[in-house]
Amino acid sequence: MAGYDQTLRPFLWRAERLYPDRELVSRTHEGIERYTYGDYAERIRQLANALEAAGVGEGDRVGTFCWNHHRHAEVYFAAPNVGGQLHTINPLLPPKHIQYIVENAADRLIFVDPSLLEVLEDAYDAEAFENVEQFVVMGAAVPETDLESVVDYESFIGEHDGDYEWPELDEELPAGMCYTSGTTGEPKGVEYTQKMLWSHTMATLTPMGLGIDDSDVVMPVVPMFHVNAWGLPFSSTAAGAKHVYPGPAPDPADLAALIEEEGVTLTAGVPTVWLGLLEYIENNEVDLSSLERIVIGGSAAPRSVIRRFDELGVEVVHAWGMTETAPIGTVSHLKPDLEDLPKDQQYEKRTKQGLIVPGLEFKVVDDDGEEVPWNSAERSSADRSSGQSPREDGEDFGELLIRGPWVTDSYFKRPEADETDFEGSWLKTGDIVSVDRDGYVKIVDRAKDVIKSGGEWISSVELENTIMAHDAVAEATVVGVPHEKWQERPAAFVVPVDDADVDRDALEADLHETIAGEFVDWWTPDAIVFIDEVPKTATGKFDKKVLREEYADEELLADE
Ligand code: AMP
């Protein structure tokens, strides 16, 4: 046995020793800031001293409520390396989810961006935030705030020097945490141990992962509150790549400027971001010559986006993953023997979610838990020998189950989920997939009842409960319908009570108002459609599939 644990510490040590002058650049509230790995490591050690002085040690969770910038990236290494846990909180969630998350995680400190302070104040609840001893504002001054015990980041670390002896940590120690939306009820916490983050980082460095190396200039547009920005701050540091952080709410012009000025080679984000950049490029002169690849994930990368970037000389690396898989699970690289295919067929392959990353295993199971065969060559020959013509790719499908060193096998403080969401070491993903003869996984449906809009989850069940609580509503269901920009938007299908007096316009206005009072703006359904009856399955459950199919081509959301 090698008596050495797999932890994040050596990644930072190596970057500082081998690449002391390589840059980290970020667009912040104060403008563009740049420094080197040498400065980065020094400030991380100052922060480690500050965290220790604040009493943060093994088992303590440190919350962050921040966009993508260098200070956030400092917490990424300091909190786990002192033995604590980096807990990134999604500021776009409804306030009651933020309260639940902070309470459930029992965060001791929260690092917050100046521009998100108001959002945090709105979500603040004394009981839920009981364990939070201090708020650290990401800047050099504390803005006006109702919160108590607030310090600015530069003062917080400024009192400490840059000498720090990192502790030897156990690889099984929780080092990170991120919540994902539950289909019903509260968000579910996923913990990442040191070893999970280590192995995910190593996998992303391989060519069959994201192939990041020290010649790269990496700009994560995916927020750092989403599964550690898909692990990119860790991978970039491990590789010695230059980091570029686009800061608070970047628009396409900001992204284009950073790509040009910083020579970005690899960037990553959800499809909505790249649709925005493509539109910007159509109307503005942008030099994309440094950009080699864009990792697109979180929702399916549209074929048109893959094609348009390809025509601009930029490879789209389509990837699939989940909060539970830390997140990279499959990547749609072209196998060497497919590189000669006509372009159209190449795009077809790359539109799929891709090939399993080395180190992970998966299987596809049907409703009875029986394994569904892949449409491999083996299957085709079995078909042929039984006299049948070989099946077409994608004819068999089922739920994707996945396991591996960076895949979780439980949710935080949720033992009941072990029965429903896991099968031993296998994670039940809730994604329905087919696998083609080349081994490419393709998502064909989603078994979980949630809507993903611009990369963020909306709980259809919570919206339904609110709508159905209205006296004039007999039954209602909320369904994700396709949307060009956001991939999916919620549409509510409402059956009014059997009463001639129900004024549908008034009911619609009333529902909009109730929803607006309870949820964040972007959760509001884009359409409320009155129907006579919600279609049901044989067992009497709402059959959303029927509505999704029926309204897939409708111009329901045409004005949005
Ligand atoms: P999250 O836990 O928020 O990262 O969401 C994970 C879920 O997003 C997956 O289970 C899929 O349903 C969806 N997803 C992630 N990546 C893709 C992709 N490339 N194509 C389609 N759906 C995706």
Automatic annotation (TrEMBL):
<dbReference type="InterPro" id="IPR045851">
    <property type="entry name" value="AMP-bd_C_sf"/>
</dbReference>
<dbReference type="InterPro" id="IPR020845">
    <property type="entry name" value="AMP-binding_CS"/>
</dbReference>
<dbReference type="GO" id="GO:0016874">
    <property type="term" value="F:ligase activity"/>
</dbReference>
<dbReference type="Pfam" id="PF00501">
    <property type="entry name" value="AMP-binding"/>
</dbReference>
<dbReference type="InterPro" id="IPR042099">
    <property type="entry name" value="ANL_N_sf"/>
</dbReference>
<keyword id="KW-0436">Ligase</keyword>
<dbReference type="Pfam" id="PF13193">
    <property type="entry name" value="AMP-binding_C"/>
</dbReference>
<feature type="domain" description="AMP-dependent synthetase/ligase">
    <location>
        <begin position="14"/>
        <end position="412"/>
    </location>
</feature>
<feature type="compositionally biased region" description="Polar residues">
    <location>
        <begin position="377"/>
        <end position="389"/>
    </location>
</feature>
<keyword id="KW-0443">Lipid metabolism</keyword>
<dbReference type="InterPro" id="IPR025110">
    <property type="entry name" value="AMP-bd_C"/>
</dbReference>
<dbReference type="GO" id="GO:0006631">
    <property type="term" value="P:fatty acid metabolic process"/>
</dbReference>
<keyword id="KW-0276">Fatty acid metabolism</keyword>
<feature type="domain" description="AMP-binding enzyme C-terminal">
    <location>
        <begin position="462"/>
        <end position="541"/>
    </location>
</feature>
<dbReference type="InterPro" id="IPR000873">
    <property type="entry name" value="AMP-dep_synth/lig_dom"/>
</dbReference>
<feature type="region of interest" description="Disordered">
    <location>
        <begin position="371"/>
        <end position="398"/>
    </location>
</feature>
<comment type="similarity">
    <text>Belongs to the ATP-dependent AMP-binding enzyme family.</text>
</comment>
<protein>
    <submittedName>
        <fullName>Long-chain fatty acid--CoA ligase</fullName>
    </submittedName>
</protein>
